[in-house]
Amino acid sequence: MIDRPFPIRPIPCLTCRDDARIAAFKYDNNVWHVECLRCEVLGPGEWSLRQAVKSWNNRANNGLQLDAGVIVRPFKVSVSGFPEATYMVTSRQKAIATAWRDIQTCGYRYSFKDFLKLATATQDAPPAHFGTAITVSGKPAFFVGCNRQYVQFVRPGDGIIRNSHPYDVLPETMRPASYGGPL
Known about the structure:
- The termini are far apart.
- The chain has 3 helices and 10 strands, in the order E-E-H-E-E-H-H-E-E-E-E-E-E.
- The strands form 3 sheets. A 5-stranded antiparallel sheet has the order 9-8-7-6-10, with no helix packed on it. Strands 4-3-5 form a 3-stranded antiparallel sheet.
- It is of the alpha+beta class.
- The chain has 3 domains: 1-63, N-terminal domain of TfIIb (Single Sheet); 73-123, no CATH class; 133-179, no CATH class.
- Strand 7 (139-146) and strand 8 (151-154) form a beta hairpin.
- The chain has helices at residues 49-61, 92-105, 112-118; strands at 22-26, 32-36, 73-79, 85-89, 119-123, 133-136, 139-146, 151-154, 162-164, 169-170.
């Protein structure tokens, strides 16, 4: 944690609106992150403290805060010669990059430049119950989806989709049918 004042004043946390518990950390890889100590939201990593604070502040200005804290959105990616796929990511660019990585792992060797000529991405309609506020292991989260085994969720202000055992999820109505819920 830094022991000097911020070079730029960080805005309050978008999730909990707390501005008193904002801190900056320099991790082992020499990357700075601004973080809310109250709700554990981690800002983007940057090589300088000044840029880390700017990136933290830009999260609000870029309009990434959707549905009261859910920053992932479904994007449908179509690639010529391949079936459509839906990706839950924070931006259209990340959806295309993720699709390119998926195709690379299947043995197809396209340069990213060539792949961009074949791919299109559009924002898709969210699935049922997407963005519903839930509690996972006693902490706030937002429902993304589920299968018969796991509930997928994101933490407020975070773009990482995580899986949880259904018995750790409240309310019980957000659990899959195989665990006593209606989904």
